[in-house]
Design goal:
Length: about 425
């Protein structure tokens, strides 16, 4: 077969065969397909789309381009994935909470993509921690601790590893077909017995409307179920960050606060909802409500915090208490206050603009070879509906130098809109797709 022929068929709005998609995925994995061809392939799919059957074929072909893990554990293997948002660090709370409830969580996660932060980038802000582990080590950590959050090794969905990097620099991130294949090729390679998907909607998400989010959620659920994995998707709100911070080390600090009872609100609510759905699907709770109760108790009683600390230590991070090493997280040399120029209420937050602001500060990648500064970002961001007086602090910018901080202050003020009256707040959970 010829990569050019497959790309030409896609460009002409014809559907490649199962064999052609499998061949192309193997070519991505072996590098028989060039970066230019991978980019053209991604762009053709982004522009013209794939039928559902071909989307499933591509997903399974990318999964089967590498190893598919097997497990011999005394409890169910479960997993979760978010389609990406800002200030979204749910995975860091959910994995240890699930492990406390009897599940095993080998969470293969990704790096920042577009304006959204990456779970691996957040974890790697912790001194000494490594998200790059062998499959044998992953199996050992999961068996010992109950959870691990790692990157895909070269042997897990290698076709996706190539395509994932290309998408970030070719403006093809938003393709429903490529998102589905990317997420599920890695998730299904870990062989979960139950899967929950957090499909984000709103200003900080890739999907801006309910219709777009519903289409992606349906695509993910149907494709995963076709592969034999019980799956549910929750469409959740991303019109504001889930924690009052954006940036890798700053978000890890918020996770520690949430695990130790110092932060409540949306981050806890979404963690509980996702965890409850998984426990029910995995047979560890009789229904959604009972599962939510178990997850909430694991967090409130501090058991999830202890499990998180064990996971961090097992992956090479500090073995000291959470709050001790959290104080040693990287800190930017410049911290500047952003004050309100008028009185009013926080009426809208442009999450995408804030995410791109963090990328420009150095907290994300403009090109795939960029190194991330884990210390930069935004903290103390006010939530929707907050009442402010003129001169009140609405956020703080953490930057590598004063000039970058000043540029970020202007961008942040433009991204946070004040109004004379308090806004109607959107629901946190919009829909369940099962």
């Amino acid at each position: 077969m010829d990569a050019r022929a497959v790309i030409a068929r896609l460009r002409q709005k014809h559907t490649p065969s199962t064999e052609e998609l499998r061949w192309f995925a193997e070519g991505l994995a072996s590098c028989a397909v060039s970066d230019a061809q991978a980019g053209a392939f991604a762009m053709a799919i982004c522009l013209n789309g794939l039928p559902a059957a071909a989307r499933s074929d591509l997903t399974l072909a990318m999964r089967d381009s590498g190893d598919v893990l097997t497990w011999d554990l005394p409890g169910p293997v479960v997993d979760k994935h978010s389609t990406g948002g800002v200030g979204d660090c749910v995975s860091l709370l959910l994995a240890p909470a699930l492990a406390e409830c009897g599940a095993y969580v080998p969470m293969i996660s990704g790096r920042g993509l577009g304006h959204t932060g990456g779970t691996l980038d957040k974890l790697e802000a912790i001194p000494g921690l490594s998200t790059e582990v062998t499959q044998d080590r992953l199996a050992g950590i999961v068996a010992e601790v109950g959870c691990a959050i790692v990157g895909a090794t070269a042997r897990i969905a290698p076709a996706d590893k190539r395509l994932y990097a290309v998408r970030d620099v070719t403006a093809t991130v938003e393709s429903l077909d490529l998102i589905t294949a990317s997420i599920l090729s890695k998730k299904l390679a870990a062989s979960p017995e139950a899967l929950v998907l957090d499909v984000k909607i709103g200003s900080g998400a890739f999907m801006k409307t309910v219709e777009e989010a519903r289409a992606l959620a349906t695509s993910l659920v149907e494709t995963a179920k076709a592969a034999g994995c019980p799956t549910q998707a929750l469409i959740t709100d991303m019109n504001q960050p889930l924690v009052p911070a954006l940036g890798n080390a700053l978000e890890v600090a918020e996770v520690v606060r949430a695990l130790t009872g110092q932060l409540s609100g949306q981050i806890i609510e979404i963690t509980v909802a996702l965890g409850g759905a998984l426990l029910q699907q995995a047979g560890l709770a009789p229904n959604q409500e009972a599962g939510e109760t178990q997850i909430a108790a694991a967090i409130a009683e501090g058991r999830a915090a202890e499990r998180f600390a064990r996971m961090i230590a097992a992956q090479g991070g500090p073995s000291t208490e959470l709050e001790t090493w959290a104080r040693a997280l990287p800190q930017a040399p410049v911290c500047a206050e952003v004050t309100a120029e008028d009185a009013g209420y926080v009426a809208a937050i442009d999450g995408e603009a804030l995410g791109l602001l963090v990328v420009r500060l150095g907290g994300g990648r403009m090109v795939e070879s960029d190194r991330i500064d884990p210390a930069v970002g935004i903290s103390d961001l006010l939530h929707l509906g907050a009442k402010v007086a003129r001169g009140d602090v609405i956020a703080r910018v953490h930057a590598a130098h004063a000039e970058a901080a000043q540029d970020a202050i202007s961008a942040l003020r433009a991204a946070v809109r004040l109004a004379p009256a308090a806004p109607d707040l959107p629901p946190l959970l919009h829909e369940r797709i099962s």
